[in-house]
Amino acid sequence: MHQYVHYTYICSQIFFILKVFRNFSDYSSQKPLALSLGMFDGVHLGHKCIIDELKKVGSAHHLETAVLTFWPHPRFVFNPNENLKLLNTLDEKTLLMEKYGINNLFLKEFDDEFRNLTGEEFVRQILVDKLNVKYLIIGYDHSFGKNKSGNFELLQNLSKELDFEVEQMEAINIHENNISSTKIRNALLAGNILEANEMLGYSYSVSGTVVHGKKLGRTIGYPTANIETESIKLLPKKGAYIVEAFVKDQQYKGMLSVGTNPTVNGDKLTVEVYILDFEGDIYDEKITVKFRDFLHEEIKFEGLEKLIERLDEDKRLTEEFIF
User: Fold this and answer.
1) 169 and 33 in one domain?
2) Full domain range(s) for residue 84
3) How far is residue 72 from each of residues 46, 62, 109, 148, 186, measured CA to CA in Å?
């Protein structure tokens, strides 16, 4: 049985069908591809420019579009002790590829066999022989293959012999700075939500299941939903944020805290959201929060009275925030 999944995205009455493949052998289509490869962590504005170019080329040359990415991240293989956090979970990345209209998504495990392919072997054996790539687009700084032996120069040299075209995209800049996944991670870790969202082209989000916490919030008039997130997902800097909360397909304003609750001597990092104008039991429900702005850093208050005063002020600012 083929190990691929179909996703369907509907936009303005246009149907996009995304096919997801975990093994190259499952891909049997003989239709040639316009493809790009890379991690695409965040699927940010730089990545979207590549995707837009893929779609433009695909339409002009009658090619299906495809992205080849790696899951899990190769850095987990090379540096297993590194505490790397990602901008996207696999589901989030897949949904963004679907939203942006990609036809095929290849999720390749970075195993020993694959990591030992030279750049030229990768192009010949995978891109050309298995995937029938006729147009290849890479980012401005992309390299691939063992010892990073694959680059734009190699692709240019092989393109005529193997009958494909290659294009290298320029860096995408905001305020004279190149957009990159690393810069977005650094912005989030500094609490610079507006900067991160500008580079992403959408509001950074976190999803998870609502689990039981200490239930302190309900005793002070601010009951919170404690969100259990995926361990690989990057959380922004400790502090308080204005968020949009999505519960059972309904949108609400919310105040979210990332931190350890130092006022009550907490020691475990939690993600808790107070949802404005909401009542109900949502334990075990999956909810999503989108970060819209930074309120303040994590504070250890002298007592609950000072904490409540600050929560009241945060609530006022959240109510006034225009989404």
Assistant:
1) yes
2) 4-174
3) 21, 31, 6, 19, 21
